[in-house]
Amino acid sequence: MVEISGSKGNHGVILDVEAEVNQNSSQSASDVGFIVPFMQKLMAEALGTYFLIFAGCASVVVNVNNEKVVSLPGIAIVWGLAVMVLVYSLGHISGAHFNPAVTIAFATCKRFPLKQVPAYIIAQVFGSTMAAGTLRLLFSGPHDVFAGTAPQGSDLQAFVMEFIVTFFLMFVISGVATDNRAIGELAGLAIGATVLLNGLISGPITGGSMNPARSLGPAIVWHHYKGIWVYLTAPILGAVAGAWTYNVVRYTNKPLREITKSASFLKGLHDSG
């Protein structure tokens, strides 16, 4: 019997092969068991990032094309809600990163396999680029509005802001998604609320990216690279700093409270962190 499990963050395979099965068969089963779940993770990351960028950037385009009918609070709410529903729907499959900064931060803390980082980032950037391309086709013409991010002030202002808000986001993610003492069922709500809050704060200055894929996808489609280095570096550095800071403060001599109801639906998110 071969049991395929995601108990190690859904990034590996637990094989319980009976003794009489020969070594070749065991190796074959291991290969198949690894490839299929990992491809599912990549599909989930690509689709999740697609829907996140499509919904969030669509709110930006609609706001510009319709005399700011959505407004900054409305745009922030769209991003927050999109993150929340995607965490709940795909967190148990891929960990619901949808963000290269999150993936890299988890990898630096050894909570995500380093060898899987490039594939995750490619899937995320692919999903973001496809979403941006879809929006450009839907809203093409005289109102072809850039749905990406560009610093409204200096690059230094943008860098500091993106670092801080991504630090905060990753700190919250590390707390609610990787610590058994937190209530795992509320992870999606907490993360979505953090994205909403960060969007309200940073939106007027940077557009509130917090995500290299969110900025890179539209930049590729619209060929608009103003300040792109800020959005590729500051979120990654902020996320790494946030993850490591939480690791410093998470340790305690107090016993962990008993978890009476495991967050099984968020197991991939919990274990990948």
Your description of this structure?
The structure is a single chain. The protein is mostly helical and 273 residues long. It has a single domain, classed as Glycerol uptake facilitator protein. The chain is 67% helix and 0% strand. It is globular and about 55 Å long.
What are the main properties of this structure?
disordered N terminus; mainly alpha; Glycerol uptake facilitator protein; 273 residues; 67% helix
Q: In CATH terms, what is the fold-level topology? A: Glycerol uptake facilitator protein
What's the total number of strands?
A: 0
Residues in helix, %: 55-70%
User: From the helix content, strand content and strand pairing, which structural class follows?
Assistant: mainly alpha
**Total helix count?**
9
- Shape from CA axes? globular
Write the layout of secondary structure elements.
Layout: H1 23-65, H2 71-94, H3 100-108, H4 117-138, H5 155-178, H6 187-206, H7 212-222, H8 228-250, H9 267-272
Helix pairs in contact: 1-2, 1-4, 2-6, 3-4, 3-8, 4-7, 5-6, 5-8, 7-8
Compose a concise summary of this entry.
By secondary structure, the chain is mostly helical. Helices cover 67% and strands 0% of the residues. The protein has helices spanning 23-65, 71-94, 100-108, 117-138, 155-178, 187-206, 212-222, 228-250, 267-272.
